[in-house]
Amino acid sequence: MTKWVLGFYSKHKDPSKILKQLRLKKLGRSALIHKASDGKITFRNNHNTLGLATVLCGGALFLIGILTGLSLLQLVILVFSGLLIFNLSDHWLNSGVDKNLLIQYGRWVLEEETLAIVETSDGDTRYAVEVLSGIGEEPPAIFILRPSSANVRKLRVEQPPREPLLAERLKHRAERLAAGHRVSGAVGQPQPLLQLLAESEQILIQVRQELEEAVLLKQIITPAAEWLLDNGYIIQGHIAEIRRHLPKRYYEDLPILAGDSQEINLRIYNLAREFITHTDGRVY
Fold it and tell me: Are residues 67 and 174 in the same domain?
């Protein structure tokens, strides 16, 4: 997944050195935004170094053409094709940050402040943070951003949080549910249980990634967040177990509730949801 590591430098003496350091550290997909005291914003992308490289590449191709005895037309075609391939490959594979991102993030920069932007993947994020932290006399304020996960829908809160019930009241609640539930005689319809499980898994993975980044940035996290980081493998184990023991057509053998308009109307699912809701998620 693509991420952007942002480093805000306050009153850096020579902003251009930041971009130079990023290039030396092989962080080619990087750019710089600087806002002067008069409010003028300047953008420096790693594509700015492309001009000299293009000239050198063109000269080298021209020299090769001369030495190999190509005609003038062949020389022109060779140089033009080589420069086109060079520029496209540099743009796609090597350097720079999208101009629209620079314009978007440029609004966040204060006067006499410099923003360094590094585009990374999951495996390079830690390295980018370390490099940005080591540039300048004072460490920058660093943030990690990622694009929104459009493929993961936000889980709906079906019921508002409730006060946990004590054992005796929980027993009475179960008795009322048993008396009020009406089981339909119809064959079970397809239920999105495994789809919901997959979506929940993706949300948990994303949350753990964000917590790991918070730890990387030395931010304080809650004890519950620490537990999730340390015990994520337990949750993943339960998810794998559900996938093994819940066949896709298992819902056809389970009782469904009559007149229930919920997306999942399996009786066992509704009972489990009620139990978790009234015990504050604490299952002993």
Answer: no
